[in-house]
Amino acid sequence: MIMRQRRFLPSIKLLMALDAVVRHRSVTVAAAELNLTQSTVSRLILSLEDQLGVELFTRERRRLIPNTAALSYQRDIARALNIVQQASMSVVANPLGGTLSLAVLPTFATRWLGPRLGQFLNAHPGIAVNVSTRIGHLDFAGETFDAAIYYGLGDWDGVNHLRLFDETVTACVAPGFAQKHPIRRLEDLAGLPMLQLESRPSVWSDWFEGQGGVPYATGGMLMDQYSMMIQSAISGLGIALLPDYLAQIEIFEGRLVPVLERNVPVRGAYWLVWPNDKVEHAPLKTFREWLGEQTNKISHGAQLK
Q1: Is residue 1 part of a domain?
Q2: Where does the HTH lysR-type domain start and stop, copy by copy (predicted)?
Q3: Do 110 and 145 reside in the same domain of the chain?
Q4: Are residues 88 and 129 in the same domain?
Q5: HSE (CB half, 13 Å, CA atoms) of 70?
């Protein structure tokens, strides 16, 4: 049983005063944010220092200047306040419990997970799901997420992994672009702009290898999200190399047309990852099972929708 010492558990009011003053470097602005008087904020800071037995600010002409200890303390306190706020919001939104917080790649969230999430919620009405978009790895220790979905080689250390599905890609262009620049063989790509994604530097090389050729030097735009790449391709700005769960949607709806061989396998896969302290989190266990069922359909040849 954990025994918590009162001295090291200042009240929320004291901690919020510290957080606001350090963030704004101003008692006046902090007081306005907290809807308190300046003198009240100053007294709260003094009470916090008295409780901890540590001086956190230098006083200069009625100004509070945070020292190194205050800056370090505030970083940790800000994370703790975020966790408390998220937990409180979750219990209000779902008083029966069962909240799952996910960090997901932006386009994957809107174009793959989003259309399927209703099935999960209908099957498990007691679970509330909070989804935020993130690119790249995150620090589970400093965030409030239970799990994340990311793309990579399974090289995220210190977490548990569930491989969802491998990546296959299709090169796509706007119908008008295809008419202006007919592409019937790899050589026809020479000199054409090939749109680039920051997080997938090797994907064009993989695609050329899958087509049985060697890459051409590319001069296309560089962007950080597939949504921007799709719009750029639709606008005729170049060739987009899209994961098939995206390519199939755009091709079916007639905004883009495929180029050469489709469904080319490349390095990398989509993964669900979660920290060790969430292994037994019941909503996450339920979500993992459901997600495994969804991706098994893909591995057995079911069409991505």
Answers
A1: no
A2: 10-67
A3: yes
A4: no
A5: 23
